[in-house]
Amino acid sequence: MRRAQRGASLLIPVLLLITVAAFAVIVAASQAGGDIQGSDANADSIQALYLAETGLEVALKRFATGTACGAALAGTITDLSQIGLGTSAYQISIANGLTTDFDGTTALPATQCRVPVTGTVISGATSRTIQAVVDRNLLEGPVNPGFDNPLAGTPPSGWTAQNPANAYAPQGGATGTAPNCLRSAWTARNQPGAAANDRRATGTAAVNFTIAASTTTVTFNRRVITRAVDCGANLPGAGPATLPVACGAALESTVCFQLIGTGGTSTVASNAGTAGAGIAACPSTFTPCTTNYQAGAPTTKVTLNVVMPAGTVSQFIYYLQLQNAGRKELFVDLIEVTNPTAIGAAQVRVWRDCSTASCP
Predict the structure, then answer these.
(1) Which member of 82, 88, 100, 216 has the greatest number of CB atoms within 10 A?
(2) CA separation (Å) from 67 to 97, 135, 195?
(3) How far apart are CA 120 and CA 89, in angstroms?
(4) What is the rounded CA–CA span in Å between residue 107 and residue 293?
(5) pTM score, two decimals?
């Protein structure tokens, strides 16, 4: 009897030890399973984000080659066999392009579009959505098509061979609120009609994109104002002695553009005309953002076409000129250059992961 009791007393700790060990194995297995599931979900989420970024590249390509910002950009992609993901396990959904910024109300420039894209890993029912503002202006990026960096002082970044270097109107741009107006390319002449008082200006931007033999469209704000008297304003330097012959016959105000690259030199797109509405008043100072200083942004931008052979474009050049009697000021701002055949210039300006920041 005592041996039986002793044996039973020894058996209980052994059974307890086995039970505890078994429970520990179950807990460990459960934790490992949870870790595996968490790891799989994290991997699916990352893969879905990569899919969304791939869809964004597709949308950028469509927009850069001429597709309008809107329903035409939208589409669903399920065949991803070209990148080794088959035809049924993954999906990319590109929604309609939007013409407003991330606040949902501010209008974007004509060369920009906000694109929502969702990548989905179907097997894991996991998706990620991003939104991005894409831009097809060939002058964006390293160039400064609004002349606004910096706002004053030194010549604007992105432009070289400026002649004269001071032919930029600080706080004279088409946008902004006093006292922080943006600036523009600019030239001005004083009252006497002698040719010595004529003013010209030019600037060159280094670019790098490839085009087919095609037409490149240049769109820009152009405004001219006149004054009854000189108002004592400082003038920019005289600038180049003449405009290129290809700019054509110049009238009171002339703006022209040219591309240069491996394919040769483009035609010169020229916009010439008489000065705009005169301003009789002479302010004591040129107050920013008032009609005494600049005429504001035109309701419709001017559009010109430049034709060039196929090749890699390395330079974009603008020329300005004012002539004939009268105090005049010529402003050019917010230049947009587009070509649906261009490769290497369209870009994503900014993008947002909609799982970490709210998207409109």
Answers:
(1) 216
(2) 10, 12, 47
(3) 9
(4) 26
(5) 0.78
Pair 331, 186: CB distance under 8 Å: yes
Q: How many residues does the chain have?
A: 360
Strands (E), 190-310: 199-211, 214-227, 253-261, 264-265, 269-273, 278-279, 302-308
Provide CB contacts within 8 A for 279, sequence distance 6+: 225, 226, 227, 228, 291, 292
How far apart are the C-alpha atoms of 84 and 206, rounded to whole Å?
A: 39
Name which of 195, 185, 142, 194 is nearest 162 in CA terms: 185
Q: Which H helix or E strand runs over 8? A: helix 2-64
Going through the chain in order, the beta strands assigned E by DSSP cover: 75-77, 90-94, 112-121, 126-135, 159-163, 168-169, 184-189, 199-211, 214-227, 253-261, 264-265, 269-273, 278-279, 302-308, 311-322, 327-338, 347-353
Kindly list the distances between the CA atom of residue 181 and the CA atoms of 140, 142, 144, 150, in Å, as whole numbers in the listed order: 20, 22, 16, 12
Order of all β-strands in the sheet with 90-94? 75-77, 90-94, 112-121, 126-135, 347-353
Q: What is the mean pLDDT of each run of 10 residues along the chain (360 residues)?
A: 48 48 46 52 84 91 90 90 78 94 90 94 87 91 82 82 83 56 80 78 92 90 72 75 78 85 79 54 44 49 86 92 81 88 87 87
Q: ∠263-240-162 over CA atoms, to 5°?
A: 70
